[in-house]
Amino acid sequence: MVAVLNRWVRHVPPWTLYLAGLAHIVWLFWLGETGGLGPEPINALERALGETGLKLIIVGLAITPVMKVARINLIRFRRAIGLTAFLYISVHLLVWLLLDVFLLSEIWADIVKRPYITVGMAGFALLVPLAVTSNDWSVRRMGAAAWKRLHRLTYAAAVLGAVHNVMLAKTWAAEPLTYLAVMIALLVLRLRWRTKPRSGNAGGMGRARQGPEPVGKGMSA
Amino acid sequence: MAHRWQNNLVRNDITPEAVWLNRRAFVASAGVVGGLGLIGAGRARAETLEPNSFEDITSYNNFYEFGFDKGDPVKYAGALTTEPWRIEIDGLVERPGSYALDEIVSAMTIEERIYRFRCVEAWSMVVPWNGFELADLLTWAGVKPGAKYVAFETLYRPKEMPAQRGGSIDWPYREGLRLDEAMHPLTLMATGLYGKPMPKQNGAPIRLVVPWKYGFKSIKSIVKITLTDKQPETTWNMLQPQEYGFYANVNPQVDHPRWSQARERVIGGGLFSAKKPTLMFNGYEDEVAGLYDGMDLETFY
Predict the structure, then answer these.
(1) Least confident of A204-208, B35-39, B60-64, B65-69
(2) Between chain A and chain B, how many beta carbons pairs sit less than 8 Å apart?
(3) Is the Cβ pair A39, B260 closer than 8 Å?
(4) Where is A147: in which H helix or E strand?
(5) Which terminus of chain B is less hemmed in, N or C, by CB atoms within 10 Å?
(6) Is B11-292 CATH 3.90.420.10?
(7) Does A137 touch chain B (CB under 8 A)?
(8) Residue from A98, A170, A175, A178 to probe the interface with B (highest B Cβ count within 10 Å)
(9) pTM of the model as a whole
(10) What is d(CA B241, CA B253) in angstroms, rounded to the nearest whole number?
(11) Using CA atoms, how far apart are residues B133 and B112, in angstroms rounded to an integer?
(12) Is the sign of the CA dihedral A21, A24, A28, A29 positive or negative?
């Protein structure tokens, strides 16, 4: 079963994810323009983009645990998932800047005065170096260990994004809290695997300090 | 009441197909709706108020009893039964009791009121309500001298209101007004909109509308009204007292701790509409500012 799935997954080229993400974003804009997102499309668009970005980050962070626990190998999609998440969150930010707030003075005031905006912007800022270095050339140039260390920032960005999502609700709502709980669970899992390194394991993330290991094309995102 | 509200809306356009008779014939006195303009004396009312579409008003709702998403009420409120409906009026009143809605409504005069509606979440609509002045109902029930506040409660019926089965809010939903706010001629008990009976997702069969306060004060599907001498507990204030006050007057100068209240998104403008500045007391400053003379509106938010 797992073997079949792993074999099947090998035939799906990762670039299809970029295409699907792009098509989905265009679709969301089209819905917004034609009434499909309800009477208040700007907020609906912001939420749809932000939440999809958050979900993709969760999926990206879950890839190693899934491989360790279920032996399903989706590593070759990780870079595409991460970059597609970045695409969603960038467009989310652009919608906020250009369609929602728009006034430059208010944008700055919001970033400084509104904690949920500050937190969201901080999360985005952390994602930028990760997106910029999500390519083979950067992995080679930085070296695997340094690259992995840098990309642990994903966890910080993920938690900031999830906190941002919790903070903008009118009150404590179940769904944003669930995202945050999942993020924290993934982070705790990551920390536990780091303190109790397992040997002879396919997952690389927990063993970054144990010396060189192959970082192939599929491992680098 | 010393003075009744002077309706300053004029009918400069009549849309015959939009004329609807309420099932209880509530709107006999004001059944004409359409592109109504608002021409007022105050500078804030010099604009023309264009009501939102029936579709906007009935598909974008905060009615947490049916779920936290704006689209939940229209999806789930169909399960609500609104007949029979009784309202219990108790506390410091001359004629306490449990009254059938029809009995109350038949004693009242239904009018149309086109009001701005401003949510604490910084979005707004314009709604053509049908209803009667809360003051008339309170006078009808007889307010005893010691009464200082009016408390309201929404229906508690978890079988029909799915989110009431969850525990994040201490149901039933509760709201309250100071007696002078409750007696103000702008304060409406609404039984319908666009000349139709109140849609369930908007708080059928009867709800409060206090146009100069944030929307959460305008409690829906009311089953209980209590006259009291103490400031009543109100749901959002109980949930997050530092963010939602008892007064909750629309005020562009007092921000919500987490977001600005200076501007609002007008619902129905599409993807490329800009926000518009929020008006003091939601544009009803001339009518209601006097209620708060000498009060620090930053302290009593």
Answers:
(1) B35-39
(2) 64
(3) no
(4) helix A144-151
(5) N
(6) yes
(7) no
(8) A170
(9) 0.80
(10) 19
(11) 11
(12) positive
- Average pLDDT of the residues of chain B: 87
pLDDT digits (tens, 9 = 90+) for A204-215: 444 444 434 434
Residue B22 marked ligand-binding: no
CB–CB of B220/B203 below 8 Å?
Answer: yes
pLDDT digits (tens, 9 = 90+) for A33-67: 998 999 999 999 999 999 999 999 999 999 999 98
User: A175 falls in which pLDDT band (50, 70, 90)?
Assistant: confident
Token pair of B69 as six digits: 């998403």
The CA radius of gyration of chain A, in Å to the nearest whole number, is 18
Tell whether B154 is in a known binding site.
yes
- Measured in Å, how far apart are chain A's first and last C-alpha atoms? 26
Cα dihedral across residues A149, A150, A151, A152: positive or negative: positive
User: CA of A115, closest CA in chain B: separation in Å?
Assistant: 7
Q: What are φ and ψ of residue A122, in 5° steps?
A: -60, -45
Q: What is the mean pLDDT of residues B90-116?
A: 97
Which of chain A's residues have a Cβ under 8 Å away from the Cβ of B267? 39-40
- CA B155 to CA B173: how far, in whole Å? 8
Q: Are B253 and B217 in contact (CB under 8 A)?
A: no
Of B265, B122, B94, B125, residue with least CA distance to B194: B125
A47 contact B CB<8A: no
For residue A209, the model assigns a pLDDT of 41
DSSP calls for A30-58: HHHHTTTT-S-HHHHHHHHHHHHHHHHHH
Query: Is any Cβ of chain B less than 8 angstroms from the Cβ of A173?
Result: yes
Looking at this predicted complex, what is its ipTM? 0.73
Taking the Cβ of residue A38 and every Cβ of chain B, the question of whether any pair is shorter than 8 Å is answered with: yes
Of B168, B236, B258, nearest to A172 by CB-CB distance is: B168
Question: Which burial class, exposed, middle or buried, applies to B44 when counting CB atoms under 10 A from its CB (0-12, 13-18, 19+)?
Answer: middle
Respond yes or no on whether the N-terminal peptide bond of residue A65 is cis (omega within 30° of 0): no
- The answer to whether the CB atoms of A38 and B60 lie below 8 A apart is yes
More confident site: A68 or B58: B58
Two tokens, residue B182: 């409750």
Rg, C-alpha atoms of chain B: 18
- Residue A199 confidence (pLDDT) above 80: no
β-pairing verdict for B188-193 and B123-133:
antiparallel
Cα distance from B7 to chain A (closest Cα, Å)? Answer: 29
